[in-house]
Amino acid sequence: MKHITIKGATIPALGLGTFQLENDLARKITVAALSEGYRHIDTAQAYKNESGVGAAIKDSGIDRDDIFLTTKVFREHLSKKDFMPSVKESLRQLKTDCVDLLLIHWPNPNVPVTEYMDQLMEAQRKGYTKHIGVSNHPTALLDQVLATGADIITNQVEYHPLINQTKLYTYLRGHGISLTAYSPIAQGKVLGNPVLKGIGEKYGKNEVQVSLRWLVQQDSVMAIPRTSKTERLKDNLNIFDFELSAEDVAQIDQLKKDNQRVVNPSFAPDWDTVS
């Protein structure tokens, strides 16, 4: 397993995402993932499965310090009044005193960046989280985040071979911030892609494994594929025994020209556009 080391954090480059997994299934999948060797688990208040994830970790028999656990503050909890109570409730649900990474899940135009970042930094000072970061923040908002002096380690965003995140990725690298890729297989849209399929055939891998390998082979990129099927966990993890050639990467890089975004809720910010 490759690890990313950034600002004092050492994080497995491949983790488990739990979006859309209800509590019981989240618990089952997390238990299975941990037994397969996953040590990076991602959840969120909005997923309503923190208690399932927490129970899986607690019952796994694995030392809590060996698991990198991320959760995210819901956009409706970003105000000073609601922020810290929501974090304490997350810790209670997760059955832990501290998460490894606490993220702002989505920006909220009704709460100033300075207000929610002050609260995020305060949560870190209180020891509720070791590291802090954001999610779904385009470069214009990242400018405001960094202006607060916050030492964020990642921006978790949609990233896969079919979307163009060149502007955002370049910005993050320029500021020493990692990128955590959610929906790393475009919620299944990479399946059947002839370029990814052809490359995979050279290595005895499928389109999903090629996509995940393309991500983790990049500097300071992590991926958190979500699956509801335990048998897929091993496949997703089985990406560290081959390496894409420069030619393979160049071919995959061409796929971003279609710029397919699969996650774009009505409350999303103005995304970075790439000319």
From TrEMBL:
Which keywords appear in this protein's UniProt record, sorted alphabetically? NADP, Oxidoreductase
User: What positions does the domain NADP-dependent oxidoreductase occupy?
Assistant: 14-256
Q: Does the keyword Nuclease apply?
A: no
- Which InterPro entries does this one have? AKR, Aldo/ket_reductase_CS, NAD(P)_OxRdtase_dom_sf, NADP_OxRdtase_dom
Pfam families cross-referenced by the UniProt entry: Aldo_ket_red (PF00248)
* PANTHER family in the cross-refs: 2,5-DIKETO-D-GLUCONIC ACID REDUCTASE, NADP-DEPENDENT OXIDOREDUCTASE DOMAIN-CONTAINING PROTEIN
Q: Which family does it belong to?
A: Belongs to the aldo/keto reductase family.
What is the official name of this protein in its record? 2,5-didehydrogluconate reductase
